[in-house]
Amino acid sequence: MLLSQRHPFFYFISVWCRRLQRYGYWYFGRTHFANKRDETKLAYRVKKHQSVLLKKLGDSDMQLQINKVTNLKIAASRINGVIIQPGQTFSFCRMVGRPTRRKGYLEGMELSFGVARAGVGGGICQIANLIHWLVMHSPLSVTERHHHSFDPFPDDGRVLPFGSGATVFYNYRDYQFTNNTSHTFQINLWFSEKCIEGELRIDQELEYAYHVWEKDHAFLKIDGKFFRKNEIWRDKILKFESGRVVESELITKNFARVTYTPAQYEDCCG
To answer: Residue 110: inside a domain, yes or no?
Structure first.
């Protein structure tokens, strides 16, 4: 066990050391961060996606899910309409800022050291997950992404491949991508009755699209413990040649500890 996990004081010091390092990178580094937002939408849509707001996650307190909606709306208001010009980098934590009670954030569910717990601003990773899914369907380059090393809850209406999200923790676990193209991009976020919705837009229509898919998904039992694995791949497809795939690439391999009993093992382990 790490020293920072044994005592709250050491954990506090560790977090702030990492935050100070990040501040130095933000304000003294050479990265050109996107910070301009525009309500006028760019001409073409690259990808749209929606994510259900309220989900029952194991035995967790549903009030944390309800509070999460408030947190999502505050965070989304800081990102909606952001313009990412050529050469610029999008930083989730830099755009959203530190979630605090003073800003109106409530206690939502967050995951830490393999445990689900209440934390101010909890749940805003759902926006990072959504944005990452949009970005994977574009030529934008992901330059920083973190994901949980464990799977804490059984799937509840999952529509995206396992391990395709992005976790954030202000500010040293950030989600960043860079626009290395000659195009300008824009992220738009809004809310419907049951979902948070988002889209990635561009100033000129691309000649190709992307398809993201899962391969070799499985649950494993090793030494009495459960694990989950898969691979996430991406196809680059020419739009105007009958959807011809011109490139396939492995995006990531996932291997995570599972903290529940997978359904296929319940009969023998229950």
So the answer is: yes
Beta carbons of 37 and 83 less than 8 angstroms apart = yes
* 151 belongs to a structural domain: yes
Q: Are 178 and 140 in contact (CB under 8 A)?
A: yes
Ordered alpha helix ranges (H), 59-158:
62-79, 92-96, 125-136
User: E strand or H helix at 11, and its extent?
Assistant: helix 8-28
- pLDDT (mean) for 69-87: 98
Q: What is the pTM of this model?
A: 0.91
Q: How far is CA 211 from CA 45, 170, 199, 216, 247, in A?
A: 15, 31, 16, 17, 11
> Domain tally for the chain?
1
**Residue 9 banded pLDDT, cuts 50, 70, 90:** low
Pick from 223, 52, 249, 217: nearest CA to 151: 217
Q: Quote the tokens at residue 77.
A: 């208001």
**Residues of the domain holding 28:** 24-205
Q: Whole-angstrom Cα distance, residue 181 to residue 84?
A: 10
Residue 2 has pLDDT above 50, yes or no: no
* 139-190 pLDDT tens trace: 999 999 998 778 888 877 678 899 999 999 988 899 999 999 999 999 999 9
Q: What is the C-alpha separation between 249 and 210, in angstroms, rounded?
A: 11
Inside any domain, residue 41 = yes
R_g over Cα of the chain: 19
Q: Report yes or no on 264 lying in a domain.
A: no
Q: How far apart are CA 42 and CA 59, in angstroms?
A: 42
CA nearest to 140, candidates 35, 251, 241, 24: 251
